[in-house]
Amino acid sequence: MTTCVVIPTFWTRRGGRASDRLVNVYDHPTPIDGESPLADCLRSLGAVRGLGKVVVLVATTDSSIEHEAEDRVRAIVEDFPDIDALVFGPAELGSLHRRLEQLEFSDMVAGVSLTGYGAVRNAGLIAAATLGAEVAVFIDDDEMISDPDFLETAVEGLGMKTPDGKALFAKTGYYVDAAGGHHLKDDAHWSDALWREVDDYNRAMGAVDAPPRVKPSTMAFGGCMALHRDMYCNVSFDPWVLRGEDVDYVINARMHGGDVFLDGAWHVMHRPPAGPSLALRFRQDVYRFIYEHRKLEFAKSQIDLRRVTAASLRPYPGDFVGNSVVWRAAATALLRALAGREPGAHLAIAKAAFSDASRYARRNCDNYFAFQRRWPLLLDRLWEDVALGSLFSGERQIDRTAITGRFPVIPGR
Q: What mean pLDDT comes out for the span 53-74?
């Protein structure tokens, strides 16, 4: 099967200053003046057998640095001439958006962009479809691949049925650290008594070592994920989930009659740099889980969707998308503030759990379903699209100087 490897890379302002917005806050963005792990990732990917097209998506926390970030990424990619790579930046996105408008899908533009985890991944899926890839394989720029058969393992079984008759169109591997471990260190504080996320995550990771090798999963890893065309051309990522779009994809797949399967023999080494502050990451999770709860509740009224319950998503993220999520989030934020852990930020989160986060969920929970209902038609129209295909394959080039305003110096002038 033809594969397209998709690598989102996220960049932020100098000094790593975090955005105060919601939608463009990322776990591990690279400061524009910092060292990116992308080069190491590409170096390891270059040793993988059967490597085809690679799409590198350039996302930023601030539009003011998008062209500078693209330049940084292009310079990195140019050091690997043996890799057939497309750097997907603002110019490519502009061409994609114009094509959507031509095809009368202008209502889909907001969900396919380089801002926000889900929208960025949707841009990657469209690039894969335009290139005619039967499988889109996602990895992250802060990962290393040590297995030359990485892609062979990724596609193994895809498009077929499991022994119990389930269609296998989406698969996830898992992350390991430098020592080969796949559990998170539990350093919970007493103020986390109502929010033991790591405990539930580690319980879910117990499935890695349990038979059978491939089994339905309640969670997924966006940096080690393979989607068959019969899945990704029918189910999109949710552009309105602020974090955990990979786990959310499990929910989306289930709602539409499918499953994401965990392959216990497929993994990558994850080397994340220091993340955002505890409060900033917690804020994104609070918005995320309240949104997921609202989404599950809203989906119950949709007759064309399979019902997905919080209980069916245990051990993770089940208890974080149930009825208690709002008060547990608020109580945890208050406890952390009382413990002196970024008290100002946590007090604001406690208030947001009952106000802004809940409003965000109510305001956006039906957006995904409207977007998703048009997604299969859009992907059908863009599959091997001639106009975009010539651009994404490299047959046609964009004059970036006209877009960025950075015109070359003419000798003698």
A: 96
